[in-house]
Design brief:
The chain is α+β, with helices and mostly antiparallel strands. The protein is built from nine helices and 17 strands. Strands 1, 4, 5, 7, 8, 10 and 12 form a seven-stranded antiparallel beta sheet that branches. A five-stranded antiparallel beta sheet has the order 2-3-11-6-9. It starts with a helix and ends in a 13-residue tail after the last helix.
């Protein structure tokens, strides 16, 4: 038998031996290794990430495996929104393994790995969390150095079965991602999160997309997903979160627990006045009972000395609040409102450029959004695994 095929056969056989037992009731179907290799030091079985249940993706009919909008959206949304939707912000996978070593390799479509205010680990990297004592804890980051990367994320830990959560790049377009485990280790994919609870859908700007977090798991939407133990669909579009009416039919295809509209940083007062009510009314017509949160923009910390910056915040907020009041007076139900004055705190330390949050800023955003979201999230009884 060809040695390569023999490695594959051994990998599949050994993985299948242990497939019947798992420490988690939510660990389900075993993934198959796509191929096995001997790299000189390690014998690895490699798993295509698409064999796992992808979280943070509202549609399955996509052009590339990790797109955030369906393929049909290319003919519906503005070209810039479509381009940005190819970037994998918020998409993640959960899996179980007792492997003592975990490798990752991924290929990126865009050759820009980092940005002036945002490191390559966030723009183009992978971010691994592990569940420890029933809490998600950061564990490893895949640092990209080129368009195709291979790294060892985990090395020589104890052989105990654990649940892992892997976040994809915030501002790049991965075409392929694989995880490598030692031959004889097994990988179980977690049951789809939407089988337990409905997701929260965020529509927003570059901040929502993840600027300027240091790692994919540090964007405020990802922080909220871990805190709330709930899938989050991140539809943040850098400089293009502008309450576009053509987005409504796409959003209406989703069935979330809550819609969060966080678009003001990309808008002006007149835009807010013109677009908010038509957008909300159209979405409410499609989803009569789903809660909708309207969020004000964060304060520019340098607005203390630049009056125009402060004025923009004030005009945006006045326009959004007026629209919110009119919608309530018109009988639109299940609306919530999040004020923006203290979203990032009052010390000026939470941004890199007076606009985009640091990790500290993203944590503060998560704190504020969590207070609004928790009361809106219905307690849902998880389905039992089959």
């Amino acid at each position: 038998m060809d040695s390569r095929l023999n490695v594959i056969s051994i990998a599949r056989h050994l993985v299948l031996i242990g497939a019947t037992l798992t420490s988690s009731a939510w660990a389900q179907t075993l993934t198959e290794p796509i191929h096995g290799i001997v790299d000189g030091e390690h014998q690895l079985a490699w798993y295509d990430l698409t064999l796992l249940n992808i979280e943070g993706q509202g549609w399955r009919e996509t052009k590339l495996p990790f797109d955030r909008l369906p393929a049909k959206a290319e003919a519906i949304v503005r070209p810039e929104v479509w381009r940005l939707s190819r970037q994998s912000s918020g998409i993640c996978v959960r899996f179980f393994t007792a492997a003592t070593t975990i490798h990752a390799r991924w290929t990126l479509t865009l050759d820009t790995l980092s940005e002036p205010a945002m490191p390559a680990t966030a723009v183009s990297g992978l971010d691994l969390y592990v569940k420890h004592n029933d809490r998600w804890r950061w564990f490893a980051v895949g640092k990209p150095e080129r368009q195709t990367n291979e790294v060892k994320l985990v090395n020589n830990i104890s052989a105990d079965e654990r649940e892992y959560l892997l976040y994809l790049p915030l501002y790049n377009v991965p075409s392929t991602i694989e995880l490598g485990l030692p031959i004889g280790s097994r990988m179980l994919k977690a049951a789809p999160a939407h089988a337990r609870v409905k997701p929260v859908v965020f529509y927003g700007t570059s901040i929502t997309q993840g600027g300027c977090a240091s790692r994919p798991g540090m964007v405020y939407t990802a922080i909220l997903g871990r805190r709330l133990d709930r899938p989050v669909i991140n539809l943040g579009f850098r400089a293009n979160g502008t309450l576009d009416l053509e987005m409504v039919p796409l959003f209406a295809e989703l069935d979330p627990a809550v819609y969060v509209l966080d678009c003001l940083p990309n808008m002006t007062g007149p835009d807010v006045s013109a677009r908010t009510e038509p957008f909300i009314k159209a979405l409410r017509a499609a989803r009569p009972e789903t809660p909708i949160v309207l969020a004000e923009d964060r304060s520019y910390p340098d607005g203390i000395l630049y009056p125009a910056r402060r004025e923009r915040n004030q005009l945006n907020r006045a326009a959004l609040k007026a629209a919110f009041d009119r919608l309530e007076q018109a009988g639109i139900k299940h609306l919530s409102y999040l004020e923006g004055e203290d979203l990032l705190g009052d010390d000026g330390d939470a941004t890199v450029d007076a606009s985009h949050p640091t990790d500290l800023g993203h944590h503060r955003l998560a704190d504020k959004f969590e207070k609004v979201l928790r009361p809106l999230l219905t307690i849902e009884t998880p389905s039992k695994p089959q």
